[in-house]
Amino acid sequence: MQELIDIGVNLTHDSYDSDREAVIERAAAAGVRRMIVTGTSVTSSAQALELAGRYPGRLFATAGVHPHHAGSLDAHTLAALRVLLASPRVVAVGECGLDFFRDYSPRTLQRSAFTAQLELAASVSKPVFLHQRDAHADFLELLAPWRPKLPGGVAHCFTGGVAELSAYLELDLHIGVTGWVCDERRGADLRAALRAIPLDRLLIETDAPYLLPRDLAEKPRGRRNEPVFLPHIVERIAVETGEPGERIARASSENAERLFGLAAITA
């Protein structure tokens, strides 16, 4: 299969502390040679950038504050993110957005943190890596006015149905598909929407160590997800859409290169 790009992997997670290098090499052996390491706080964003520096041209980073940590976003945090975003290896602002499912941060703080990061992305002209759960209407209301000022964005870990998909495509967003598509319990809406995702908008990701595909024939001990399973997600998308896996792989890699400017980042 063509080389794959995992556009969302939490490689700074402590579950990888004992074998992070092996995880990266297992992924490469499976054809997943480039990955974008997700930043969810200033600390994890700095760690993601440091990791990208150790694997030039193979690993890249995002820098942002997840809605779970919205209360930590202040002027100092924004200044720190701006410094991180000055590196070409940091290819997007986020993970940012709204999460009204967990509500780990007050919704007022989530809204203000999201808006601040949209403004930041516009000012540095980098795409946004977006999170939305159970907050679709508020998310659209905040994002829509900023979208013309942004170079692009991806609805990370999209789990919705056709209606949500249509709204995101109207905003010219890319759509990130994870192993959620392999979940026979929760993935029905996503599977129904897959055929409506244009190939030039599709991105693939594992969101590892989370969202281990439930239909793996052999599941790893501890059920930790890894980017090595990205080809399995491609195969499931191929089954659900009727598109050849090679075509999905090629399109998603080309989309990632274009959205995040990966081809120009070699060191």
Q: Could you walk me through the main structural features you see in this protein, from its secondary elements to its overall organization?
A:
- This protein has one domain (4-264): Alpha-Beta Barrel (TIM Barrel).
- The mean pLDDT is 97.
- The chain is of the alpha/beta class and 267 residues long.
- The chain starts with a strand and ends in a 7-residue tail after the last helix.
- Helix 2 runs parallel beside helix 3 (75-85) and helix 4 (107-124) packs parallel to helix 5.
- Helix content is 39%, strand content 16%.
- The protein is built from 9 helices and 8 strands.
- The radius of gyration is 17 Å and the shape is globular.
- It has an 8-stranded parallel sheet with strand order 1-2-3-4-5-6-7-8.
Overall pLDDT level: 97
- Beta-strand portion reads 15-25%
Helices and strands: which structural class? alpha/beta
What integer value in Å does the Rg equal? 17 Å
Principal-axis shape equals globular
